[in-house]
Amino acid sequence: MNTKRIRLLSVEIFNREPFVYVADKPRPVKIDDKREMRTITNIIENGDHYEIFLSSGVESKHWKDIPKNNNVTVEYYI
C-alpha cells in the first residue's frame, strides 16, 4: 500500500472517455434520482481496490469502490 495521498483516479471503460474522480473538487452525484453537489474528500488505496469518500460539508461517507486493474490511472499529490 502506498502512503502518498491520491489526488485523482481516471477509469477507462470500453475505450470511451474515462471517468475521472478528483479529490477536493465538487461534482454532481445522483442521489435519490436528484443531482446533488458533493465533494470527494478522500481516495484511499485499500488492498485490491480504491475507496472513494464523499462529503456534503458536514461528514464524509464511503461512496464507491474502484477495483485496481489496468484501466485505472492514479495521480498523487506532490
Distance between the amino and carboxyl termini:
17 Å
Number of domains: 1
| Helix-strand string | EEEEEEE
Low-pLDDT segments:
none
**General form:** globular
Q: Strand order, main sheet: write it out.
A: 3-4-5-6
Structural class: mainly beta
What oligomeric state best describes the polypeptide chains here?
A: single chain
Report the helical percentage: under 10%
Rg is 13 Å
* Separate helix tally: 0
* Mean pLDDT figure: 90
Number of strands: 7
Largest sheet: 4 strands, antiparallel
Description:
This protein is mainly beta and 78 residues long. The chain has one domain. It contains no helices and 7 strands. It has strands at 6-11, 19-22, 26-31, 34-46, 49-55, 60-67, 72-76. The strands form 2 sheets. The chain has a 4-stranded antiparallel beta sheet, with no helix packed on it. A hairpin with a 2-residue loop joins β4 and β5. It is globular. The mean pLDDT is 90.
Brief summary:
The protein is built from no helices and seven strands. With 78 residues, it is mainly beta.
Secondary-structure map with pairings?
Elements: E1 6-11, E2 19-22, E3 26-31, E4 34-46, E5 49-55, E6 60-67, E7 72-76
Antiparallel strand pairs: 1-2, 1-7, 3-4, 4-5, 5-6
Which features would summarize this protein structure in a list?
78 residues; 7 strands; mainly beta; globular; 4-stranded antiparallel beta sheet; single chain
